[in-house]
Each structure stands twice: as structure tokens, then as C-alpha cells.
Amino acid sequence: GENVEQHPSTLSVQEGDSAVIKCTYSDSASNYFPWYKQELGKRPQLIIDIRSNVGEKKDQRIAVTLNKTAKHFSLHITETQPEDSAVYFCAAAGGTSYGKLTFGQGTILTVHP
Amino acid sequence: ETGVTQSPTHLIKTRGQQVTLRCSSQSGHNTVSWYQQALGQGPQFIFQYYREEENGRGNFPPRFSGLQFPNYSSELNVNALELDDSALYLCASSSIQGGPQHFGDGTRLSIL
Fold first, then answer.
1. Cα–chain-centroid distance for residue B94?
2. Which of B33, B92, B98 sits opposite A32 (nearest CB)?
3. Between A49, A89, A102, which is nearest B45 by CB?
4. Share of chain A above pLDDT 70, in %
């Protein structure tokens, strides 16, 4: 089955800096890669997603890049703000696990004012 | 547009008991997936329902079962509860199979 590795497990940045979180996946048939933000005690919130026919997608301060050959994808947050502090999860789905999201272990992002 | 709603928000059970958790999908969504999230970990896929049938299952024993109703709402049933079943149970719905999944607030289940 699919296996998703996420790094780093914790990330601390100063307000205004950029943050990058990286994930690798094992199933070359996976074709859908969402990112979720989960604040303490709240639901995971879909913040951006990308499909395997696209190499990069951007939404304001957030961007995701995908390298299918290397089987890794990354979340980029620019001009970080304290409200970006949360746990971020990457996930992968598709191929034989159509509809089943396999999540990474999560990254605790802390943005210091 | 109504989002995904789950009930109850919290539940305390003892080992060996049975529990039923409920989920109403977001308006217009016909696919429901259930996930278990242990403290400090990412959600783990339990199973997905589409058109009232199980459509994919993760690595969970048969004592985890579910249902989907004609209005696309869903139930997760867990029998013979074990201490390790203590977790946040999340429901997610999507408008199509393989589409973006939107989560509810979850049910926090504690097993004593």
C-alpha cells in the first residue's frame, strides 16, 4: 500500500519568513495530493491540493510543487503570519487506493511574531 | 451550504462496549470516508462509502463496520471496544469519488 513520509516534524520560523514542508510517497500510481491544516482541537482543513498532471499550483501565499519522477511534493508558505501556526498534513491518494487518503505524520509549524 | 457534521462530539465508553458514531455529509456530497486520528498522528483511513456500499477499506479489523444511508449520511460502528480505540474519529465527505475531502469536527472517543 501507499506510504507517505513527511519532514520536518517541527518547523519554527519568524513572522514574514517562508516555510517549506516536504513529503515523499511510495505508490507511483498515486495521482492526488492534498494538504491539510489542523489547528488544536479543530478539524483538518483542506488548504490546497494538486493532481499529478500539474507540476505546481499556487493560491495567494501558499503553493504546492510536485515531482512525479522523484515521488515527492512540497508545501511552500510565503510571508508567514502567526495565524499560520498549526499542524500541517500532506496526503496522497489514487491508483489502487482511489479515494483513500494516506497521510503523513504531520509538521508542527510555529510562526513567532 | 452545510458542512460535514458529526455527533456526538465526545463519548466515553468502557472496554468491551459497542459505539455508534454519526456523520452527515456536506450538501451535495455523495461519498463519505471515515478516519481514526490518534493523538499526535495523522488520520488513518478506516473505510469509504459510496452509494450505500463500502468502497475501500483500510487496515482495520471487522469489528469496525459502517453504513451509508440514502441521504448519504453515514454511521461508524465499533464493537468490542479496546483501549487502543481511544482516538478522534473523523468523517470526510466529497462530491465525487477521489475528489477533495472535507472533514467534520470529529468525535473524541475515550475508552476506560
1. 14
2. B98
3. A102
4. 96
Grid cell listed for B100: 477533495
- Take residue B46 and report the three cell numbers written for it: 478506516
- Cα separation of B60 and A76, whole Å? 34
Q: Which of B70, B60, B68 is nearest to B91 (CA)?
A: B68
A-chain residues within 8 Å CB-CB of B59?
1
Distance from CA of B48 to the nearest CA of A (A): 7
* Alpha carbon of A16: minimum distance to chain B alpha carbons (Å): 27
- Where do we find the cell 481511544? B86
- pLDDT digits over B3-62, tens only? 999 999 999 999 999 999 999 999 888 999 999 999 999 999 999 999 899 988 999 999
Say yes or no: B105 contacts chain A, CB-CB below 8 A: yes
pLDDT averaged per 10 residues in sequence order, chain A, 113 residues:
95 98 95 95 95 91 96 98 98 78 97 97
The single residue listed with the C-alpha cell 500532506 is A90
Q: Which residues contact A95 (CB under 8 A, 6 or more apart)?
A: A2, A27, A28, A29, A30, A31
How many Cβ atoms from other residues are within 10 Å of residue B104's Cβ? 24
Burial zone of B15 (CB within 10 Å; 0-12 exposed, 13-18 middle, 19+ buried) = exposed
Which residues in B lie closer than 8 A to residue A46 (C-beta atoms)?
100-103
A99 near B100, Cβ under 8 Å? no
Amino acid identity of A107? T
